[in-house]
Structure formats: C-alpha cells, structure tokens
Amino acid sequence: MPRMLDVSDDVRAEIGDEEADRLLAGDNSPGSYDCTSCRTPGDSGQERTSTVLFIGDETAVLAFAHATCLPSQVVQVAEEQLQGAVRSITGEADAGPRPAAAAVPATAGAAPQPAVLGVTSGLVLLADELYPALVVEPTGPIARPGSIGGGDDFLALLAEQGFQPLGQVQEVPAALPGWSVLLAMGRLHAVLQPGSAGAVAWWQAHQPLQVTDGWRTAATKLGTVLVFAAPVGTIGRQPREDLLRDALDKAAANGRLVAAAMPLAGT
Question: What angle do CA 237, 242, 247 make, to 5 degrees?
Fold first, then answer.
C-alpha cells in the first residue's frame, strides 16, 4: 500500500531512486512507527511522515517522524553518536536541569583548537510561557582563530554568527536562520548549523542525552528551543532550574550572555 511519505531530494540522493521508490510504494516502510522526534506513535498510511536519514562515518540509519515534527532531511552525526542513538530508543527522563557531557563544536569558528563545551537543559519562564532552553558554557576561554596571546572571544564570535546579546532575560530572542536543535528518539543529540552539504553539528553530545518530560513536552508544543551561551565560569552547573534562571539573569545583567531561538529541528 502506498505510504504518505516525504522523501527529500537529499535523502533520495543518499539512498538511491530505487530504494526511495520502494519506500513510497510501501514495500520497505513501516505502517506504524514511533516518531524519532516526539516518540509518539505515527502511521505512514494515515498521516504525512518524514524520512530522516542519520549518517555516521560507517553507519546510516533511516528513521521516520511526523511531518509536523521534522522535515525529511539528512543529518550528519558522529559514528559513536549514531550508534548511541540506536541504543537509546528507550529510557526515562530525569528531573531538573540536565547537565550534558562535554562535546566539541564543529565549524562555527569558535576556537583555533576544538573547544570543549558543556550544555545544560532546563525550562525558562518568559511572558508566562515555559520555554525549553539549552545553556552552553565552555570549559575554558575561547580565542578567535589565528589570534595571538589568548583571550576570550566566545561571545563576540557567537554574536557574529547571529546570536543576540542580552541585557536581561525577559523576551524570546530572535530566531537564528539555518540553526536547529536535534531531539531524536526522545533524547537530545545536537545543535545543528548550516553547512555547505546540509546541516552539520555545531555541538554534539558524546551520547544522546536524556531531557525531562516537561522539557520535551514544551519543545514539541512550541517547536522552538532557546539556546543561551555564556563565557567560562559564568553559569556553572546549577542543580535546580530556579538557580539556573538566577545565573542567567546575573550573566545578562553583567553583559555576559547571548541567545538565539532555534526550531526543534530543521536545516
């Protein structure tokens, strides 16, 4: 039976016309599936469904998502990340802000050597609405590529990428075109930025990270994630969301915070 599948040109180019046509005809595609983004059931025979191809160094995994959650696309991830995603289909979310394992940015021009970033997830209240947020803080100063003598240019470099400097945390920051936050199989995988061959990871978890049910629900409802960034030593690992918010407010008041709104997924 034909399926209501969306197969993007990028996905078709990777899997080939023959395989794409078989998917569309229903030969190799599931009728029912668990959405790789929101993890709720879907039916490709009854609703628009996106094919999402995750590509690692040696492995490729074709997943399915509600078209309202994710567009059909190719997402490049590290091999370890991809294998971890396959292993993490099940799992329960923890409560409170979730500190991430350190990871490495890709091509945002954030350091002359790969800089280690830490990411914490939490909910931030703005205008009576709870927004899912990620707070990015490096473990050390990040100098401009080619600079001599060190220094910390993290905020300036992000501002050049389109992140908005904040004087206070009161309003939703401006959207950053081409960037997105990848939540797949119910876990946080990466912050993606536009690249010459499609979306590439600016930040990537060593292993897919659990988020709270509240965070995932808010992200699915709003389709938007707020990404805040601050220099080393500004925010720290806060154990509660109220303390995380206090740290964000202090960072903004001291001119040490930038932010951007990003869609839950996209290229």
Answer: 50
Burial of 34 (0-12, 13-18, 19+ CB in 10 A): middle
Q: CA nearest 40: which of 83, 69, 62?
A: 69
Kindly report, residue by residue over 161-188, the tens digit of the pLDDT: 999 999 999 999 999 998 999 887 778 8
Looking at the structure, do residues 173 and 69 belong to the same domain, yes or no?
A: no
Residue 86 located in a structural domain = no
For residues 43 and 106, membership in a common domain is answered with no
Task: Specify the pTM.
Answer: 0.63
In this prediction, residue 246 carries a pLDDT of 94
Domain residue limits at 42? 5-76
